Structure formats: structure tokens, C-alpha cells
User: What shape does this take?
Amino acid sequence: MTARGEVLRTPLVRTSWLERARGRPGRLAVAGFGAVVAALVLGVAFGTVAISPLDTVAILAHRLLGLGLPVTWSPAAETIVVDIRLPRVLSAMVVGVGLAVAGAAFQGLLRNPLADPYVLGTASGAALGAAVAVIIPVRVAVLEFGLVQVFAFVGALAAVALVYNLSRTGPLAPLTGLLLTGYAVGSLLAAGLAMTMYLSGTNLRQIFAYLLGGFDGSSWLRLAVAGPLILGGSAAILARARSINGFLLGEESAAHLGVDVRRERRILLGLASLVTAAAVSISGLVGFVGLVVPHLVRLVVGPNARRVLPLSALLGASLMVGADLIARLLGEIPVGVVTAVIGAPFFLALLRRARTGYEL
Amino acid sequence: MNRSATPPTDPLEGSFDSAPARVSRRRSRPVARRPRPFAGPWVPRLLGLLVALVVGACTSGVASTPASIPPGATGSVAPAATATPIPAATPSPTLAPAATFPLTLTDDEQNQVVLKAAPTKIVSITPATTETLFAIGAGDRVVATGEADDYPAAATKLPHVASFGKVDVEKIVGLGADLVIAGGNGFNPPELLAKLRSLGVPVLVVYAPDLPGILKDIELVGDAVGDGPAARGLTARMQAGIDQLSAATAALPHPRTFYELDATKEIYGPAKGSFVAAEIALAGGQPITTTDPAIFSFPLETLVSADPEVIVLGDAAYGTTPEIVKARPGWGGMTAVKTGAIRPANDTLVTRPGPRLVEGLRDLALAIHPDLVLPAAP
Assistant: This one.
């Protein structure tokens, strides 16, 4: 931890907004909630079809609150707001929460600033699963979940399980072992993905679309299945913020602080992987959010996981919804591109403003 | 937009056109440059792959397509091919019953499409079906098209609701569409088509693996919009045109013909059993194809040993000229290059499975037999 208090209390040093914000996590949380609500409103209000804000509000009040308003809108407008935009915005929100929290958990757990939700092979596993599902000439759909979503979910979890078990038996220190095994397994799965894509024929476009990620296939049913997994897993991670704080000091220190290192590591890895797998199964591989959002939050509030995790969730949700809205308005460009284009310059600017040393 | 940058226009073009090669190459670049400052271990691998996928895209084609080319229409014995008229679906137009709504149709991907009344707001998102709708007089009921739908001129003025790999579900619902006609075999994302169906919009998926299938699809589209008789009139004329061309080329020698889709990096041409191969046979050539329906690329050695007598440049619209072909290293030994029998063809007409197919066939026949005098089209 740096000399945060000193900087704040030294009258001769002009503090930047960044440092002032550090002392007021409550205000940041309120701002975060505000950003989420704003993103929700904008995400539902805008799209390729213009629907007046009054109608949008009336439709939502009519359908969600059951108000018996006079129907002044067309049935198409109602379908667009209720069955297209709302599930899409909420899916983006939930996935944003999941990836940001999982990213923060992986970074803390592995004590590596380059860690993201995909670091232990989740992405390669999910991608391979989705690609295999695409080329299998069987079409099954249960509750609007096709093979792609199911295989992506299973592939992601299987990849992490493989990485975890392989790394446990090796001679390396646990963290190094996990990272290197994750890299190796990820490379192997990527080779499998390459071969699958090569063999995929005209289905290549579908695989490609999955790799780029996006929310245009969102529906209420998918959200109803994946949402609880993601939000429940994220909440469970949030509840373990103390363990993550322990891991930040190093595993040995954590053990001295009374953290059951092996057990907590296993649980946190499992939770973060579950959240990531559920997220990528409905969104495809959206990059960048899980990596950068926790860093952005840490730059402002410092490394305490009790603050980093919930604020990451809020920022992840609003960033993802905003990025999806921009992607939609620009003609369905890949949402991962938007998150990177928004996130990277912002991240760089914050890095330059951080006066005190930045640490994980 | 540069013609070469437009997405492949429809399922069959997606299979046979050189466009997919170009498109995927172009599309993969921005992805490869996507800023990932802290890319995880999988990222470089994945992005590396996308480059390799140019190959995948090009060999994509009809991997899952049954090669149900009519017997004799393809293959190496070309004269037999041309002598055999294509057993196409040509019911006489007079017998066609006027479609009565409500109507249930089975589309090319075995979906049951229920139409309560004749559609009045049609969205067509493949170039071929858009052409078909305008050709059978249903153009005034088309409210939106795909970005690649460039013919006829009236169609280009309509709003676009689909482009490569995308369908704007919201816009289609907002337009109040009562029928969406889309491309099968992955041309339009199946997931988004399913989404449309779940919102109550009827979706008719069209995909023809061969020439008779193209004519059948025109009739299917006609039935769906309540213009079955007009569609059957059109297919009867097209069949007459095909028969006429077949008769005109039957007695001619059939030179070994290579239809070049792309050769800027690797060499791409028609796959075995593909409908372009069948077209070449009809147009009076002996098609040089790959050895497998799913493979579209030719190693140069294979092409040299196949020794084409005619090279038809399907990629002429992308700037390939006979001079460029002659200058390629290793190509000088081919008979076509020695005799200068390298001629362009209109790739859009040849590979788009729509009402202008016969024009494409005639173009192809003239590229293979430049001295041929064709009778006026029926």
C-alpha cells in the first residue's frame, strides 16, 4: 500500500481528482450505480429503429409494471423494446459484471496484472467447444440453447479443470504452474480450434462470429439460465474478498493471516471459471473488459478487493452495455473492438495520472 | 464500396465466388490488429489462426452440401453431359394453381413456414432472391434487402437490413415484415434467423446446391409471395434457355476449361461436383475441378498437369487480366496460356443462383467458345 493518507493530508500537495476519489468509495459506488442505470436507459432507448422515449417508457411501464396505459405504440415497437433490446441490454450487463469480477479475482489470485478471465484456457476451451458444436451436423435446441452455448460452457470448464489438475501434479510453485500450464493447454486447444475451423466449410462464419463475441442473439430464456449462474458466482466471489486480499500479500502471508490457501484458491478458481464459462457461453469471446476494468478500478480506489470487486462489477456492466450500444449503432461491429477502443485510451490516461505507485 | 470488398452475395456465390477469399482476408486484418496490449496466451494463437483461415474460407464452400448434380451434368465425359438435358422442375405454367393463403411451405432447411396471408412487406436478404422477387413482379412489396443485393436498380434504393454475417433483427421487426427470405447453408446467421422466428416473423430459407435446385427455389419464393404462376413462367423460360444453350454447345469440342475464382495468392477454382462445374459442362467445356467437393484450392502442379485449354477469368472484375495470367511463374506451359485462350466472364451472372443464371451460362459459353453464335434467348 502506498502513502495514500500522507498525500491526502499534505496541504502543500495539490491532489488530483484521482486521489481525492480514493478517499470516497461511497461516492464512487453511487456514481457506478448511476452509470449502470444510465447505460440501461440509453441501451433500451436507442437502436436501429427510432422509438420515441415516451413510448419506450410507456411500453416498459405497461409490460413490466402492469400499468393499464392506453396503447399508443405499434406492436412492432413493443416487440423491439421488450423482446429485443431489453434482454440484450440485460445480457450485456450481466456478462460485463461476470467478466469484470472474474478478471479481478484471477488477477488477485494469480498476482499477475496480465491475468484476465481467459488466462487459464477458458477462452480456448469455449472456442473449441463452440466450433465443434458448429460443425456437428446435429441441430438440437432446448430453451433456445443450441449446442454452441452448451459446448462452449462445457469446453471452458473442461479446459480449466484440465489446467488445474495438470498443474497440481507438477514440481513448480502453484501459481507459476497454473499460468504456464494454462498457456500450454491454451495453445493446444487453439491448435484444435484451427483444425476445426479449417474443416468447418461454410460454417466458418458462425465460428468467426462466436470468436468475435456479441449480444445480438440474446433472449430472455438464455438470460434466465446464464444470468443466475453469473450473478450468483460473482456474488460468491465478492463474499470472498477477504481471501483475495490475503492472496495479494502472497500465499505465505495469506496462510499466516488465517486463510486456508489451498481451499480458497480452489474455490475462487472454480467460481471465477464458472462465471467466465457462463458469460462466454451467451456472449462469445468478448475481450478486454475482464482485463482492464479491474485495473481501472484499482487505479482509482487502490488494491483493496472489498472495494475493487463491487466497483468492477458496476463499471464492467456499464462499460459492456455502452460498448454494445455503440456496436449496435455502428452497424453491429464486434463489441470486443468497441470495449478495446473505449477502454485502452482511458486506461492509458489513468496510468499516466496515477502519481503514486500502482500495484495490484 | 469497392466491388471486391463486398461480401459474397449468396449461398452459391459464397461457395464458388472468389469473394469469400477476399472478404475473409479483409475482415481478418482488423481483427489481427485489434489492440490487445495484454493479450492472454490464447490470443496470438487465435489471431494467427484467422490468417490461416483464409484457406478455410476458401475451401469452405459446399462442405456440407450433398453433391446432387444431375447425373451426367458434370464429370469428365463432357459431351454426354451436354447431351443430357437437365431434369429440372418445369411444370407447365398453365397447370400451376394460384397459391391460396393460409399456406404452409417447407423451405430448403426443412422448416415449416406458415403464411397466413400473401406477404405485403417482404424482406429479402440474398441477392438472388431479391432478383427473383423483382423478376416475378413482387418487387413493389419488398421493403428491405441485404447490403450485397445490387440488382435490379430499384432494389438498390431499399434500406439494408443484412450484411456479411449480420442481420438487423430490430430493423426487420420495426419494418413490420411479414416474410423474410434468407440464404441457407450459413449464408445468413442461423441464430438470428431463429431469433426472427421466435418473434413471430416467418422466415423462408433458400439454398440450392445445384441447377435444378435453383429453379425450384425460384418457384418456392414465388409460392411464398403468392406469385407462383409468374415464377413458373420464369423457370420455364430459364429451362428453355438452358436447353437451347445445351443444344448449341452439344456438338462442339469440349476444351478442358479452368474457371479461375481467384489466384492472387493460392489458386481457387470450382470444387468437384459444384454447380459451377455443371455450368461449365453445359456451356461446352470440360471442367477442371478439385478432387473433393469441400476443396476449392488447386496446387499449381495439379493445375499444370491438368493442362487447361481455356482459362475463364471469374476474377476479371477484380482486375485479373490475361497479361497477368501469362506473367505468372509456372503458368507458361499450359496450353491455354500458349494459345492465349484466356477470357473473362461475368462472375456475378455465372455464380448467382437467380433469374439471370441463363445470361451467366451464355456468357460462360462465349468465354469458352468465342466464335459461337448463340440464338436469341427464349
